[in-house]
Amino acid sequence: MLKNYSIRLVLWLLIQLLVEVKCQTTPFRSTQRSSHTATLIDSNLYILGGRNDETGRIGNEFFYLDVSVPFNTQNILWHNLTSINIVPAHISAASVNGGANNKTLFLYGGSSDKVMSLVYTFDTQSNSWNIPKITGDNIVRKNNLKGIINNYGKMYLFGGLFNGTTTQNDMFILDTKNLKWELGSTINAPSPRAVYGATYVSEQHILYLGGFSTASSIDGASLSLKEIYYYDMLKDLWLTRVTSGTIPTDRDSFSAVLGLNGQKVIIFGGINNINKFTPQDTLYVLDLNNFEWYIPKISGSIPSSRYWHQANVIGKYMVISFGFGYDRNIDNDILLLDISNDEEYMWTNIFDPNEVKPTPPTESPKVSPTTTPIPVIIGVSIGTCVVIISLLIGGFYLYKWHKNKTENSRAIPTPGSEGNNNFNHEAFKITTRNSVYNHG
């Protein structure tokens, strides 16, 4: 009897093990979605929330894509973490990677029909969610805004939609290391807006452009990209720049990323008063050196435009995830744009993590071959003057010594000649000194 029990126990354990292995190896197929978040932490791209575009239902799916291995966008292996997700179903939140070691996902705001905390954190090392206690200024919930993290662990949240009806232009700042809220300046800030484009461009500046404003008309309107706005994180102030070139049509709900050389901003997709764009009107580049827009040269199979999507730069690729407005039977949930060559971008289905991202060029003063640096010119000039003065003074004393020696070798001077010699000598000394100073 004991033997039979042992056999049944072993069989039961084997069955459980097979079930567990099958559950872990069964491919997870995500539903098409928009207004989600996409957060890159180490080699994982975490996707959370969003609206199911097939059913219209708001979901709480939580999964990630491992970008440390090659993949084809036509057959993506997602890793499902929905079973451990504590965040209610929501849309239009903002997320960044922050915390003490930049390995924590911070989720702010969003819209939900359930009770939802203002901030959630996900520790990617322990795979655990938490609701942190944050001090500082009182912050309200907003949605349809972009979270930007800097090198010091501060999350910047500009504008957005308040109460689902009003666009705003204030700046919330979350210190993800010390868990403290701050408020940024609104002096000279852009007009109130939501679903705008934003990207981190340097240790000092965040760039904002476009978006949607409820104040523009009764139904709201998409905003122009002719003017762009810099927020100075170090000085807490706003700057405005006017662009030129082939300026994109007014739009919102698009994505914006910084190019690999740090000198260009690439935007993709968007809508204009609920009208989507054609593939030819969906991709633009802004050169930050002269603030000029242009349409880049593109190769590969150009996808349909989409909006309410997300974009991340991973390796040499602009990785666009999900969104609204595309046919899943034609285009993939993930789009890959190879941006390693500024002369020609390329749409591709193959992601290769071994392709090293080009190192941004180091900016240095441009000196033409015929131009000598000013410090060198000054040094050479001073050295030349010193040499000339030294030669003149030395030459004068050599002349004086030679003259005295010559006069001493002559006959005994007549009375009064010594005074005449002294007078002529002093006159020569004055003339020589003046000539030296004038030269200098």
From TrEMBL:
Residues 1-23 form the signal peptide. Keywords: Kelch repeat, Membrane, Repeat, Signal, Transmembrane, Transmembrane helix. InterPro entries: Kelch-typ_b-propeller. Coiled coil: none annotated. Pfam families: Kelch_KLHDC2_KLHL20_DRC7 (PF24681). Gene3D superfamilies: Kelch-type beta propeller. SUPFAM superfamilies: Kelch motif. The chain crosses the membrane at residues 374-399. This is 14088_t:CDS:1.
